Amino acid sequence: MKTLIPYILLLLSGASLTLAFAPFGLWPLVIPALALAVRQVSKLNTRPFLAGWLFGLGWFGAGISWVHVSIDQFGGLPLIASVGIMLLLCGYLALFPALAFKITARFFSVNLWPLALPFFWVLSEWLRSWLLTGFPWLSLGYSQINSPLAGWAPIIGETGITALLVMAASALVCSSRTRGLVAGSLVTLAIYVSGYIALQHVWVSPKATYDVGMVQGNIPQSLRWVPEQDKPTMDKYLTLTQGLWQSDLIIWPEAAVPKLEPLAQDYLTLVNEQAFNHNSALITGIVNYNWESQEAWNNLIVLGKRIPEAQTPTYQYFHNNRYAKHHLLPVGEFVPFENWLRPLAPLFDLPMSSFARGDFQQTNLTANGINLAPAICFEIAFPRQVGANINSNTDMLITVSNDAWFGHSHGPAQHLEIARMRALEFGRPVLRATNNGITAFIDHKGEIIARLPQFEAGSISAPVTATKGATPYHRVGDIAVWLLVSLLLCFALVLQKRMRANAVAK
To answer: What pairing do the DSSP bridges indicate for beta strands 448-451 and 249-251?
Structure first.
C-alpha cells in the first residue's frame, strides 16, 4: 500500500485543481497542487511519464467531468460505454502533461526543472490546442482570472500565466535545501506582486457606450430540434425581446432560431423590420443550409440596422454581414470518419452534426455601427483565432453558445471564465449570450458587469463601453511567451552543461 501513495497523491493533486477553476474559484490552490505533483514526479524519477499521466488523469478526470453529462444524456450510449469514452478522452489529454514531465526529466536534473519545465509545458499545451482539432480547456492560467496574476494576461496571455505558475510551483520544490525554498518563495511572491502592479495599468481607452440587450431562451436541449417546437421557440424569443427594442444592439444565442435560414425567411423578415423600425440591430445564431452544395454552416447573422444612418433594412438571404463558425466541435458539429462512426451509436448521429467550416479569419460583424469580433461556443477557448479576428476598428467581442448540453455541471461556469480571460487579454468587452446560461456582460478588464441566472428564461440589458487600442498580447500574441520560456530553457541548458563539466573535472 505504501508504494501506491505517490501515485494516489498524483491523482489527488490533479483532481484538486478543479477547485481552482470556476465555479469554485480557489485560485491559490494551483501552486501547492502543482508543486505536490512536481514533487511526486521528481521522486518517481524512473517513471516520469506515468507519474505525469496520472496527474493529468486526475486533472482532466475531475475538471472536465461535465463532458460526461452530454454523452450520458444525449449520446444514446449505455453507462459503461459513456464512462469508457470519458476515460479515453481524459487518458488522451493526460498525455500532454506526461510528455512535458518526461522530456524535462530525461534531459535536466531536478534542480533545473524551474527553468526547463515551463518550456516543455507550454510546448505540450500548444500541442493540446491544435492536435486533433485541439482541446485547450482547463489550461492552468484560466484559474487566475480573479488573482493578481490576471495582470499578466494583457501582456503574455493565459498561456504565459500558465508558464509562470509552472515555474513558481517547480521552484518551491525542486531547489535544494532551505535556501532553495526561500528562493522559490521569492519567485512566487515576485510574479504575484508584479502581476498586481501590471493589473493597475490601462492598456486600452474607452470609445462610445452602447445600450445592449441579450435574451436567454432556456429551451431544453431535448426540444431544440423538434419541428413542432420551432414556432413556440421563435415566438418565445420575440416575446422576451419586446422590452429590449430601445437597445442599440440585441443578441440572441447560438442557433436561437431553430429553423434553417432558407426556411425561416418570413420570420427573419419580421424580426429584421422590427429591429430596423426601433433603430436597433439584432444578432442571432442560426443554421444556414445550401440545398445545391448540401453544406450547412453554424452562422451568426445581423438583422435590422447595419449602421445608424441606414434608410432601409439590409437583410436578405445570405447577405455578407454574417459569421460562419470556423472551429467545429468533434462529434457535436462534425464527425471524423463519419461513414464508419455514424452507424455505431446515436452519439455519432446527433442533430446538426455535419457543418462546413468557415474561414479562420473573417470580417467583423457590423450592427448599428458597432463592430464585433465573433466567436461561437467553443471558439472562445482559442485565443489565436479570437485575436486574428480583432482589428483596429473592433469595438467588442461577441460569443454565443448553447450550454444546455452540460446540464447542472461546472462546464458553463468554466466557459464563462474562459470568456473573461479573452476580454482581459485583448482589452475588449465581451457580450456572451447563451441558451440557458450563463448569459453575461463582461467589461474589458474581464469583470462581469451583469448576468442572468442560469436555467431561467429572461432578458437583460446593460450599458457597454467599447474600447480602442491594443494590449501587448494582442500585438505580439504568444511570441512573448515563447521568448520567456525559451530564455529560461537557455539558462537551464547553460547550467546543465556547467554541472556536467564540473562533474567530469572531479
So the answer is: unpaired
